[in-house]
Amino acid sequence: MSLSRHLPGSRRAAAVASGLVNPQPAASPAYPPSSLSNYSSLSPSSSSLSPSITQSRNFSSHPNRNQDIFKQFNSKQSGKMSTMPAQHGHSEACCNIPAVVSKGYEAKGSYEELGGFKSYVTGPQDATKGVITIYDIFGFFPQTLQGADIIATSDHHQKYKVFIPDWFKGEPCPIEWFPPDTEEKQKNLGGFFQKYPPPSVAEKVPEYLKAVQAKYPEIKSWALTGYCWGGKVVSLVASNPDTVFKAGVEIHPAMVDPADATKIKIPVALLASKDETPEDVKKFEQNLTGPKHVETFPDQIHGWMAARADLDDERVKAEYTRGYETVLKFLSQHV
To answer: What SS3 class is residue 100?
Structure first.
């Protein structure tokens, strides 16, 4: 079954966009914005992954679907945050997260060429556990890099090295395209989604992991995490019955599809925002048969743990911190 068939009607728009609307002002991307209007759809040929990947390559190329996406991007959402205190979902913290930096964050890692992709790499030299992180469509944003550093440095019982490959080759989606309220922005955005549908990236993950393993053979256990668009990539990779990843974490994922969960056998955590469709999140949780942690942060927007995190807002900062505590707790149990 193709992805377009099991994301019917208007739900396709909500699933694809999943709240990526009116992003909060944020620092400029690590790369200068550049036009993506000439992007064309990829045609991957790999058949090594599950049918959910190999049979759903054209989900973003339908023009009517792109129009649905634009409508979702242009929808309005409240910027008002709840004042209720953060509720911690576990009784004992396994980590000591440093103070989150609102502005001017200086990343602790460095960049390496791995598997043909520029990659942000962070974590101790003696780490024996690794995390591949799939960023959101905005690429190497400071909020995302800070999150990677938190995972790599905050657990005192387990040591992780985190890798973020640059699937977009230095040309992420410019945040200036949001909202897509002009014909030019819509054209550029449509081209971007056609260029980088999650199935095409999911097919590259196993080979990328092999390249990382070749350079870091001391890392024996792996997890996969993803934000927004990257959350869908996690679902697709985790649904492969031969995956080597021991756990997956989807953070405010786009395109939540309960059908994906029926094929996932490894432990999975899903941290949802108020913008993911509640019914889809609930059904996704019900369809997971292995260990799981599914939690909704009801007053946070889609993107609160990555590029769209407004860390000047104390409530957002608190939930950003709690989100990473939750991720670390889950990884400590399953990786």
So the answer is: coil
d(C-alpha 16, C-alpha 7), whole Å? 9
Residue located via tokens 């910027």? 79
Query: pLDDT by residue (tens digit) across 274-311?
Result: 999 999 999 999 999 999 999 999 999 999 999 989 99
pLDDT tens column, 166-199: 999 999 999 888 777 899 998 998 888 889 999 9
Where b means 16+ CB within 10 Å and e means fewer, 291-302 reads ebbbbbbebbbb
Q: All domains of the chain, ordered by start, with CATH?
A: 11-39+46-78+111-334 (3.40.50.1820)
> What count of residues does the chain have?
335
| pTM of the predicted protein model | 0.75
- Mean pLDDT taken over the chain: 79
Residue 266 structure tokens: 């490894």
Query: What is the rounded distance in angstroms from the CA atom of residue 190 to the CA atom of residue 70?
Result: 9
How do strand 221-227 and strand 292-296 relate by DSSP bridges? unpaired
pLDDT exceeds cutoff 50 at 259: yes
Residue in 227, 270, 271, 220 with CA at minimum distance from that of residue 245: 220
d(CA 157, CA 95): 8
